[in-house]
Amino acid sequence: MRSNALSGDIVAQNKAGSQTREAPWVRIALIGIAVIYLSLVLFLPALNVFVQAFRSGVGPFFHNFSDPAFINAIRLTVLIALIVVPINTIFGLCAAWAITRHKFPGRALVISIIDLPFAVSPVVAGLMVVLLYGRSGWLGPTLEALNIRIIFALPAMIIASAFITMPFVAREVIPVLEEAGTDQEEAAKTLGAKDWQIFWRVTLPNIRWGLLYGVILTNARVMGEFGAVSVVSGNIIRKTQTLPLYVEEAYKQYESQAAFAASVLLACLALVTLVLKEILERKTSIKEVE
Amino acid sequence: MAVSSTRPVPVRNNPRFYLSWPWRITITYMTFMLLLPVAALFLRAATVSPAEFWQIATSPVALSAYDVTFVTAIIAASVNAVFGTLIAWVLVRYNFPLKRFIDAAIDLPFALPTAVAGLTLVSVYSETGWIGSLLAPLGIRVAFTRLGVGVAMLFISLPFVVRSLQPVLQELDIDVEEAAWSLGASRIQTFWRVVLPPLLPALLTGVALGFSRAVGEYGSIVIIASNIAFKDLIASVLIFQRLEQYDYAGATVIGTVLLLISLLILVGINLLQAWRRRYEV
């Protein structure tokens, strides 16, 4: 899914240089159609988030920040991300290492299984968690006996978010690890380095950009996850409400000002994610050019 | 390969029974986080008798939800096939102001939380919104109709075709096109006969990925649609409504159907990508 921004540009310039065949009006028409389509589907809706949020000025916008439910939603969103992102980063690193450093039958199958969360609807993911940990679920009676509450509470929201974002880090790290090869690691091994030293000093520096890319995508998805979390949270205001759930709740209550205020925060998160993505893509493509 | 430093295990002796730490973590995590939930869904589905399963899976409400979900997703993915190809072409072949910015913005649907996408789409396409107010005099209503579901699916599946075509377009040799022109082919003939065939595998992959994403989309659609059965209710929202009514059997059956279809699509995408790789070699 990555575009090589930098090398792409060089190619584009070369191509554009030799592209004098088309009549200028064809070129302008094609660019025009592309821009109009993107405006209708993408740019106008994105711009609209900010316009709506500040429609009645800055005062009402900041007034929303004094709403305790809003503050709690921010807090919970950040808390879940702080828990899920590290866990999935560790898993992603382990899975990528295990898959790339061993040749075994069924590798393709394992990679496909890891990709499974991408294929299921978030509602189905949430449903699975309910059927596993819910009161009438598979482990329900056991959990009840131990007096552990998972569904309609924080643990279920963490589990659902972790499920949805499981593949990101592994997917980004696998190709980088394969490209890096094993020579340096084996050299370090013959020089007597310990496993964790090899990982820390040889493997990690090689894969750091791919890893960071995966971490950023994981974080964006965790903070923005709506469907799965909505199923398992019970959406109790001020207790189990993340920012995306707050957006929907405010919209349902016809408090569009509050809904857009929360949306601006999430839209800024998306913009920061895109900017970081772009920077990382340039970094990796520069490396490829070298 | 990693041998624990305390007790060197002769790997040659029992390679079967030695697992390194990363393996242990991977297997444990995947078992608890991935396989158990999937197993829970299938186990619950197995408690429903086949006759009842079939009855729920093919009830009129469910059939109408599949129709809204899959048919709308196919239409959205096809529309994006056309416009995605155009956008990829424009971004790779031409230079124009703000190109860099537009290229980066294509990924916005990946990064923007779906609830926000739904909220802003419903506000832009409602009868008082920027675009909706222009369509209202023509008698076209988008928000709270199936058309709105389509618009949300267009938004969510937009990046896939563009991103899968861009690298292939960059690799494409312009000499071949020039050869075609010098032999007297028109631009349109050249596009159909020379440019499009090598793009086809990547294009199909992009369409399949976008379709799969549109089928699974929930957050933006639940906000932009009226979620009324037989009108614009999608399968994911139907599952959610069944859960709200504590109808676990109904939610499980429809969830299982949706999961199996998603798995089929996933297998299809993997086959497509294998075919693509062979094509490239």
Summarize the structure.
The complex is a heterodimer of chains A (290) and B (281). Chain A is mainly α.
Keywords:
heterodimer, A: 290 residues, mainly alpha, MetI-like fold, 14 helices, disordered N terminus, B: 281 residues, 13 helices
Question: Can you give a write-up of this model?
Answer:
The complex is a heterodimer of chains A (290) and B (281). Chain A has two domains: 22-54; 58-284, MetI-like fold. In chain A, 79% of the residues lie in helices and 0% in strands. Chain A contains 14 helices and no strands. Chain A starts with a helix and ends with a helix. Chain B is mainly α. Chain B has a domain at 63-232: MetI-like fold (Orthogonal Bundle), CATH 1.10.3720. Helices cover 74% and strands 0% of the residues of chain B. Chain B contains 13 helices and no strands. Chain B has helices spanning 21-46, 50-57, 60-93, 99-105, 108-111, 114-125, 132-135, 146-171, 174-182, 187-216, 219-224, 235-244, 248-280. In chain B, helix 1 crosses helix 13 and helix 10 (187-216) runs antiparallel to helix 13 (248-280). The relative contact order of chain B is 0.12. Mean pLDDT of chain B is 90; it is low at 1-13. Classes of the chains: A mainly alpha (290), B mainly alpha (281). At the A-B interface, helix 1, helix 2, helix 4, helix 5 and helix 6 of A face helix 1, helix 3, helix 4, helix 5 and helix 6 of B. Chain A: It comes from Chroogloeocystis siderophila 5.2 s.c.1. Chain A: This is Sulfate ABC transporter permease subunit CysW.
Q: What overall geometry of chain B do the principal axes of the alpha carbons give?
A: globular
Q: Round the mean pLDDT of chain A to the nearest integer and report it.
A: 88
Structural class of chain A: mainly alpha
Q: For the record, what CATH class of the largest domain in chain A applies?
A: Mainly Alpha
If classified by CATH, what would the architecture of one domain in chain B be? Orthogonal Bundle
